[in-house]
Amino acid sequence: MDAKSKIKARDATAEDVAGIHGLARELSETVGDEPPMEEAIRTRLKELLEEPRARVIVAENEAGIVGGVSFWIKPDLAHGDIVVEVPMLVVAEDHRRSGVGKLLMEEVRNVASDKGASQIELVTTRANVTAREFYRSLGFVEADVVSLEFVGSQEDPPEE
């Protein structure tokens, strides 16, 4: 049995910061973002672990952490229900296409079901064809929405 077949999912702990940081760096390279500093990941992980509506789950084998997902369990006032939002799912490059992402998303679906969520929302870029194909293979459909982001300083917003 190889290492890829011995992968288990579990809730993240504060001791997982180095492994999660490595995954976050890989994700930033994939999507073309600046890589995060380990201290920033440590701070965010600590906050998420203390937040009752947030979850961080890692996938690991004997070698260490090979995948991770973070998600929010959010009350949706507009629809009167619960939505699970997944801002981050990442699998180490050498473990992609080995079931790690599917395992992590099964964990998300289990929590969503336990919480009575009516929807799971994912975000990926249009250019990330691999991620889009992966999510579609799990039964997700692309919604016809426009995503808007405010980028900049709240104190000095951009001019119209």
Any overview of this molecule?
With 160 residues, the protein is of the alpha+beta class. It has a single domain, classed as 3-Layer(aba) Sandwich (Aminopeptidase). It contains four helices and five strands, in the order βααβββαβα. The protein has helices spanning 17-31, 38-50, 100-115, 129-137, and strands at 8-11, 54-61, 64-76, 81-91, 119-122. It has a five-stranded mixed beta sheet with strand order 1-2-3-4-5, sandwiched between helices. The longest helix has 16 residues, at 100-115. It is globular and about 50 Å long. The protein starts with 7 loop residues before the first strand and ends in a 23-residue tail after the last helix.
Brief digest:
This protein has 160 residues and is of the alpha+beta class.
Write the layout of secondary structure elements.
Elements: E1 8-11, H1 17-31, H2 38-50, E2 54-61, E3 64-76, E4 81-91, H3 100-115, E5 119-122, H4 129-137
Parallel strand pairs: 4-5
Antiparallel strand pairs: 1-2, 2-3, 3-4
Order of helices and strands: EHHEEEHEH
**Helical amount:** 25-40%
Indicate the overall shape: globular
CATH superfamily: Gcn5-related N-acetyltransferase (GNAT)
Please list the strands of the largest sheet in the order they lie side by side. 1-2-3-4-5
Structural class: alpha+beta
- Major β-sheet annotation: 5 strands, mixed
Tell me the Rg in angstroms. Answer: 16 Å
Through-space gap between termini: 60 Å
Mean pLDDT: 90
The level 1 CATH classification is Alpha Beta
